[in-house]
Automatic annotation (TrEMBL):
One GO location term (cellular component): endoplasmic reticulum
Keyword Glycosyltransferase: yes
Xref: PANTHER family: GDP-FUCOSE PROTEIN O-FUCOSYLTRANSFERASE 2
Superkingdom field: Eukaryota
GO molecular function, one term: peptide-O-fucosyltransferase activity
Subcellular location: Endoplasmic reticulum; Golgi apparatus
This protein's record includes keyword DNA damage: no
Keywords: Carbohydrate metabolism, Disulfide bond, Endoplasmic reticulum, Fucose metabolism, Glycoprotein, Glycosyltransferase, Golgi apparatus, Signal, Transferase
InterPro entries: GDP-Fuc_O-FucTrfase, OFUT2-like
A Gene Ontology biological process term: fucose metabolic process
Protein known as: GDP-fucose protein O-fucosyltransferase 2
Organism whose genome encodes this protein: Cherax quadricarinatus
Gene3D superfamilies from the UniProt entry: 3.40.50.11340, 3.40.50.11350
Amino acid sequence: MDNCNKTLLIILTLLITFQRATCTQETCREGRRNDERYLLYDVNPGEGFNLRRDVYIRVANLIRKLNDVDNWVLVLPPWGNLYHWQNVRPGLYVPWKNFFDVESLNKWIPVTEFNDYLKTEGATVGSTYVLQNYAEGWGGKWEEKYDKRPCIERHNFEQRDDGSWSGQMWATKVKTDNFTCLSIQGQAATLLPLIQRDLTSRSVFIGRAETILHDEYGGKWYWAARRSMRFARHLREEATRFRRDYLGSDDKQDKTEVKDDWRDTKPKRGAAVGGPYIAVHLRRKDFVRARGDEVPSLKKAAQQIKKLLQNENLTSVFIATDAPVMELQELESLLPGYKVVHYKPSTDFLHKWGDGGVAIVDQIICTHARLFTGSYESTFSFRIQEEREILGFEERRTFNRLCGKKSNCDQPAKWRIIY
């Protein structure tokens, strides 16, 4: 090899090395590297879909901080049979790609599906930490801390004869070398020292991750992670079809068009107009029992909906609700002269995407309405408000809720988007 070729080879090697060294979570995600480490997490089985989405943001920004030093990949926990999902077989778990655009998530932090992790690493995890609160409580003093403590609640891990542990993770029996119950009070970043000191484990599992708090709820890092959580294309297309066919709504006339890359979408406040309908999330079932004073009767809900339609000079309302069919029919009878629309999936759609897919289509349709009003302390409503912030709706058309027994009730806090 002559000197010229040697020089070119050296330059090429340096360029490749520099590219790898400067590759960040926002600029590249091509292929796997040998030094990758994996963070797995799970949430209390009783938590619903929309709370789990919030926990994802907490853990995603923990990965962001870990990647300031190392090369971590977040393993996405499969979706099982959640409380409101009646059409998922027990023991069946579905991947995130069924509901979310995983490529979009990867533009914020490196992520992978659990099934892909099993193919790469096998059914093993280096260290397992199950989070819990302190048995004695906070003691009236707030401080970020964690301690290894005896387990307070039941867990599904057991120690083997060789000293290792095994347990069920999403219908898969997994071996873990180290198992610890960890009492903690603090934010996601409180776990940084624990994970960074665990130098021997290629993978770490965090159980009951809802125990940790956001590092900065509503800050720019929160919103970056939230904006990356775009829904899967097949669900967006289904919602687009429904809006066009039943509500006379499309992105161009509604001024809700977005760029292909979420990082390029930063609309000004008030840019979005929305379709010619209002959307209402009417929470029923257990909310009627648990929050009776804050949940309106069907008659009172109809009165409020009618007033909103008159104020907006509209005649169509889309209802997203967990109410039984009879209640939905009663509500419609209380709104004579108005078009009451409710999404009912086809058998094929329900078979493919389940109740989770149906809920997301409901949320997308609500997101694109001229005005939205939700239910008291509902995470379903919160997520819609966030989606409308991302699209650039006016605050007065987003942060609303139905009142219960009181004629005038406190409206939701305005968590405004930050770039």
